[in-house]
Amino acid sequence: MISIHSKKGFDLNITGSPLPQTSPRETPVCVALLPEKIPFVKPRLKIKEGSQLQIGSVVFEDKRNPVIQFLSPGGGTVREIVFGPRRVIQKVIIQLDQEEERVSFPSYTDSQLADASRASLVEAILTGGLWCLFRELPFGDIPDPDIEPPSIIVSIDSREPFQPHPAVYLKGKADLLTAGIKILEKLSSSVHVSIHQDSDMPAGLAKGIVTHRVSGPYPAGDAGVLLYRTKKASAENRAWHISGQDLLLLAELIRTGQYPVERIVTLGGSLAREQLHIVTRMGAPLPHIAGENTGDPPRRRYIVGGIFRGYIAEKDSFLDLYATSLTILPEGDEKELFGFARPGSDKPTHSRTFLSSLKKAPFTVDCGVHGEQRACINCGYCDDVCAVDILPQFTLKSALAGEVEESLAHGLLDCVSCGLCTFVCPSKIDICAVLKGAREAYYKEMQD
Amino acid sequence: MAKWHPLFEATESFFFIPGLTTQADAHVRDSLDVKRFMSFVILALMPPFLFGMYNAGYQSNLASGASLTLLPVVLKGLLIILPLVVISYGVGFFWEILFAVVRKHPISEGFLVTGLLFPLTLPPTMPLWQAAVGISFGVVIGKEVFGGTGRNILNPALTGRAFLFFAYPAKMSGDAVWAVVDGVKTGAVDAFSGATPLSIAGLANAQEKIEAVLKAADYPFIKLLLGLYPGSIGATSALLCFAGAALLVVVGIASYRIIIGGIAGVLLTGYLLNFLAGDSSSAWLSLNPFYHLVMGGFAFGIAYMATDPVTAPGMDKVKWVYGFLIGMLTVLIRVFNPAYPEGIMLAILFMNLFSPLLDHIEIRLKIKKRVINV
């Protein structure tokens, strides 16, 4: 096992983190797919409103590569297809039947798996609709199944705030994890499994499975950071990655021949009614997970996908395909009199300019910017927290100036979009968004 | 009315942290903003500022033969310093607002620091109109023509001071400018020379030891450290400047690399020059290097000016180089260029020009080590 220490980063210590307990939810009335939230995909619908679906029926495929299919997370009737601006497909809402039917896919026993060829496994994953769980670095697109990646990185615990604990989602599923890694070994000759040193895992699981033990603050556990720390040559850049929980889904599909629809998501944040892990359905409605009613305060924000990388979700929306967390935070739109002069014993900060930096207790965060945007003053705080050393303050300027070569030389494509540069910036510049925009523009240009 | 929005915003945001919320990821943000960042510099400036006020009053009363008890001295200091500070902020803000309105950018908090730094680098006898001209030059040419705080290449306060130094040398150098003298000098106070330690040191003959000359002029090392002697308003007390620097380092706003690098540059250069000293060479060469730290404005400059993040390099390793070269240049200017008794101002401005180059060198070296990813 290789130990990797990543010094830079930041662990934000905040209230409302989910307890390592699970709470099951009853089956919701409807579930949904959110094609809009899957990056880069150009969906082509295979169903209409009113179509009858089974669990595992094809709902849409990617126009760019039609073998990549997205399957129905529930059995029932398509109740509504919601389009957004420019006919973007936002939601496909499926009303669930009492008795849901399932499509069955080929299944593999352990010995069959050992003998299976790469092509047959790729085929099984593609038809089983789970190819989308693989993501290709550095852009995060769904990889081309025909290409053998330089490596596949499994991040068992990314240590992003409020993501499911491995001790919870791996409980009783050690054999699935082993099977999942066997599948990956068929797909690529090099499989890295990383776990964070501070993660609690079910006992004995780490032995023989984990190849890299990482330590350090967020985002040390991220697949992109691991790649940055371990790569020796440019050929390794296009590695694939998959999260630990997604790997379990993959293994379940291959072993049972059934499209897995159970998900463990965290419910957290200071305004959540309870802070724990929820066992629910893929694509479940957010209110169903939050367990809220109309009496809750209106100034709260639903964040799906983590406080650093997630997006703001409508309160009546659904979990997207990749979502593993729902965080509910106060909006934080109150003005604060003489805020800049207060000692600030309760303010979350990376700097040492508040009394709170002397305390170890967790703080309540809100979604306030806590200041106004100013020009960059070159304080270098962003570089202090950048786990992949891309010098965000300089890369930001080259990206804004349109100097693509310069940005790339700085390591723009090593950026893992952890959001910490934006978090710490005292000038309140959204550095991460600029870098992400530059990266996406470059990707689009490369594809054309 | 809309074009006055920057003024409205500046006034409002002086009192309130605005209730803006994030619109996308990252959803949470650090509580630190530029205003608090700059407020800490102002907080760290308070010890030299308050002491400078006391010292200005003290030197003035000493020169005028007035009472040296606390209250009259402080009142006198207030009378001398406050108009300068008010002029600096008032005239500087006028330019800030004018540019903000015309160029439609927000008023940055950076000026809060510049507006206080600038008067502290002046002699207490500075005519107010000249102070106004100086801050105008500093703000307009030093900063606003480049686009405002964050985009300037030179420290605006020092740019203003350098302008005054070269435009009105009679009011910025010599022995008569460092204390405000009321009325006609009486015989009793004729003994007061008003010369700064640097100018006294500059007069020392080759055979003399500067330390002894300073001591004879009643400027022992400890007095130079504490700062109760004539000089630029905020810069006389090296001890308080280093205390302010320590605060800035502790809260993570000033770079300890620049400060320690600067001190090392002064000590090492001063020490090496001691080897050059012969019997007939300048007395400066044999000066104990620690005197360079406490004389003149070095402590003030390295603590508050050199650490300005906008004009200093952004890369950590070259910050050592930057600080070191500032220290070295300060000593070299003092020792080898008698035309300029003070070296720190020009040393910092000169190194400001080199920061982008220093950054460029370190960035290139860093990029070379990366595995290329395109």
- Trace the largest sheet of chain A across and list its strands: 1-13-12-11-14-10
Indicate the proportion of strand residues of chain B. under 5%
Q: Main β-sheet of chain B, in a few words?
A: none
Please give the oligomerization state of what you see.
heterodimer
Portion in helices of chain A: 10-25%
In words, what does this structure look like?
- The complex is a heterodimer of chains A (448) and B (374).
- Chain A has 448 residues and is an alpha/beta fold.
- Among the domains of chain A are: 132 residues, no CATH class; 77 residues, no CATH class.
- Chain A is built from twelve helices and 20 strands.
- In chain A, the strands form four sheets. Chain A has a six-stranded mixed sheet. Chain A has a six-stranded mixed sheet with strand order 2-16-15-19-17-18.
- In chain A, strand 17 and strand 18 form a beta hairpin.
- In chain A, helix 4 packs across helix 6.
- Chain A is globular and about 65 Å long.
- Chain A starts with a strand and ends with a helix.
- The model of chain A has no long low-confidence stretch (mean pLDDT 89).
- The radius of gyration of chain B is 22 Å and the shape is globular.
- Chain B folds into two domains: 150 residues, no CATH class; 168 residues, no CATH class.
- In chain B, 62% of the residues lie in helices and 1% in strands.
- In chain B, helix 2 packs parallel to helix 4, helix 5 crosses helix 6 and helix 15 runs antiparallel to helix 16.
- Chain B is mainly alpha-helical and 374 residues long.
- Chains A and B meet through strand 20, helix 10 and helix 11 of A and helix 1, strand 1, helix 2 and helix 16 of B.
Offer a few descriptive terms:
heterodimer, A: 448 residues, alpha/beta, six-stranded mixed β-sheet, 20 strands, 20% strand, B: 374 residues, mainly alpha, 2 domains, 16 helices, 62% helix
Summarize the structure in short.
With 448 residues, chain A is α/β, with parallel strands linked by helices. Chain A has 12 helices and 20 strands.
